[in-house]
Amino acid sequence: MKFELVPTLEKLRDLYRIPLGPERFKAYIDTVVGDAQRSLELHLAPLVQANPMAKAHALECLERWIELDVEELAREVLEEAPTQLESHFPDRTVKVGFTLLDDLKGGWTNRALNDAARFKTGLDLERTGWLSLRLWTSESPALEGVRPLVLESVYRAEFVLQHGDPRTLSEMMRQEGLAAAFAGRTLELNRDELEYSRAVLAPYLESAEQPTTFAGMYGDGAAREMGYPPLGLSARAGFQVGLADALEARVAARRTF
What we know:
Blueprint: E1 2-5, H1 9-16, H2 22-32, H3 56-67, H4 70-84, E2 93-101, H5 111-115, H6 121-128, E3 130-136, H7 146-163, H8 169-182, H9 191-201, H10 210-218, H11 220-226, H12 237-255
Parallel strand pairs: 1-2, 2-3
Helix pairs in contact: 1-2, 1-3, 4-7, 7-8, 8-12, 9-12, 10-11
């Protein structure tokens, strides 16, 4: 699989430089949607997730990301990625673009809920042909997290094209654990915390109910924000257990040789 980085951040910056009002919104529609009649024809599909009426803080955040040349770094990682990932789709090219989600002052942008779009990556690829790299206004721009973000996204795209989007909690944990391991992420929970989380998650692994899978992956705080029943888990517990399982499987595989 090949990945084509399409610059999007400067276009979004140009939109945010237009004063708030109908003129900006029209420019946003023209830039992102254009004359598209269906999702596959969208000009810049990742920017559908951006807040067209974001305020000055979003522009300031974009300026900092552009100054860091984040798109060039992502391009370099995307060029390297196919050498690290054995692809079953060598002739397929996927467009990749950044987007900025306003989870700081955008009233309707819940961080965890929007982040959960990762579990519909296959559907997004089918509908638009794009892979979106999400940046957040609540985070200070820094290049350290860009490489793992890109590598996770690349692995996830390959994975869902082979296996489809995950439905159950166990499938979500497996997908994200493997993606995180591929990206070189390390565990943030200690052994006792992992064992506790694994025990709490065990009865729900085959659940495909959104309140359960959401709470299992993102933890009690995020679940309460959505009005879902908490399960007794810390933030992103499902991601951490999934990563621990992937790392343990990797070690076990090495021991067999």
